[in-house]
Amino acid sequence: MATKKQDTSSRIADNKKAAYNYFFEERFEAGIVLEGWEVKSLREGKVQLTDGYVVIRDGELFVVGLQINPLKSASTHVNPDSIRTKKLLLHKEEIRRLVGKVEQKGYTLVPLNLHWKAGKVKCEIALAKGKAEHDKRDTIKDREGKREVERAMKSRSR
């Protein structure tokens, strides 16, 4: 179940580092199990996704390293843990397929972004393969080339 491009207004957080470090094979949209204080913090944008990764334990997916910082006004009877491991929700058949792919050499699961969909928080994950150092250099070279072209077009239109 590959996903479509998300609306930028519904985005909560992006993992920009992932596109630099990995080639994406397939993308999946998963639900995420959160506590009430975490949802409130997400609404305020108190989240960091760049160090996150997905692990498979007992046939279930968990995102590790997703940091949701508690609000200052958090309730006193709740003990917020900002780096708690959060469970991802996917159909059993999708999980089985992902387990088979991840067991192949070089594949991993990476969280790409968090976004709102119908009032619920969703996590877009990707089946990814790590880039070699020369691939990363090519990515930088392409990005610099695009910037130069945009600068030239901008100065020419003035």
Automatic annotation (TrEMBL):
<dbReference type="GO" id="GO:0070930">
    <property type="term" value="P:trans-translation-dependent protein tagging"/>
</dbReference>
<dbReference type="InterPro" id="IPR000037">
    <property type="entry name" value="SsrA-bd_prot"/>
</dbReference>
<dbReference type="InterPro" id="IPR020081">
    <property type="entry name" value="SsrA-bd_prot_CS"/>
</dbReference>
<comment type="function">
    <text>Required for rescue of stalled ribosomes mediated by trans-translation. Binds to transfer-messenger RNA (tmRNA), required for stable association of tmRNA with ribosomes. tmRNA and SmpB together mimic tRNA shape, replacing the anticodon stem-loop with SmpB. tmRNA is encoded by the ssrA gene; the 2 termini fold to resemble tRNA(Ala) and it encodes a 'tag peptide', a short internal open reading frame. During trans-translation Ala-aminoacylated tmRNA acts like a tRNA, entering the A-site of stalled ribosomes, displacing the stalled mRNA.</text>
</comment>
<dbReference type="InterPro" id="IPR023620">
    <property type="entry name" value="SmpB"/>
</dbReference>
<protein>
    <recommendedName>
        <fullName>SsrA-binding protein</fullName>
    </recommendedName>
</protein>
<dbReference type="GO" id="GO:0070929">
    <property type="term" value="P:trans-translation"/>
</dbReference>
<keyword id="KW-0963">Cytoplasm</keyword>
<keyword id="KW-0694">RNA-binding</keyword>
<feature type="region of interest" description="Disordered">
    <location>
        <begin position="134"/>
        <end position="158"/>
    </location>
</feature>
<dbReference type="GO" id="GO:0005829">
    <property type="term" value="C:cytosol"/>
</dbReference>
<dbReference type="GO" id="GO:0003723">
    <property type="term" value="F:RNA binding"/>
</dbReference>
<dbReference type="Pfam" id="PF01668">
    <property type="entry name" value="SmpB"/>
</dbReference>
<comment type="similarity">
    <text>Belongs to the SmpB family.</text>
</comment>
